[in-house]
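In this supplementary section we document a worked example of the pipeline. Step one takes a protein sequence of length 163 as its only input; no multiple sequence alignment statistics are reported here. Step two produces a three-dimensional model, which step three serialises into structure tokens for compact storage. The input and output of this example are shown verbatim.
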Amino acid sequence: MRSFLPLLLPFALLSAEPTPAPAWLGVHLNEVDEALSYHLNLSGDLGVLVEEVVPGSPGAAMGLKTWDIIVAVDGKPVYTPRALQAEIRERKPGDAVALTVRRGPQSVDVKGPLAPRPPESERPPMAFGEGPTPRRGQLRQPDGSVMEWSIGEQPPIGGDTKP
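The serialised model returned by step three reads:
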């Protein structure tokens, strides 16, 4: 009887190698919906909202800020967080990436290298998306004003709780 071990050994050696960490930008993203587009005076549905920039991340080193709208990666337009994440996944840690960002009324170009994605245990917790869904809150806008929001039939923050 013939042994298959010599045939399988090369495949075992290939799979024993650790897979490199994917490239990481270090930002938490959200879609630019119609309401946000109107509120920020954006034209069209182009871009992805930066909700949070992880301190010490490549995004922070590039100068990305909360409320930035990333509209292109290396000149290629992006419309959704998934499209932006796909663009980053196509790159390796250490690759430089150029982002075109809408910051208020200005367009800003930032560039920098991507880093290896840190293990889950080493990443800071997300400010958004964890825990119960918030029912109401406040958003500070780039101009410093505050917009109140609520989901469902709740009174505005600080409002009367009587029906």
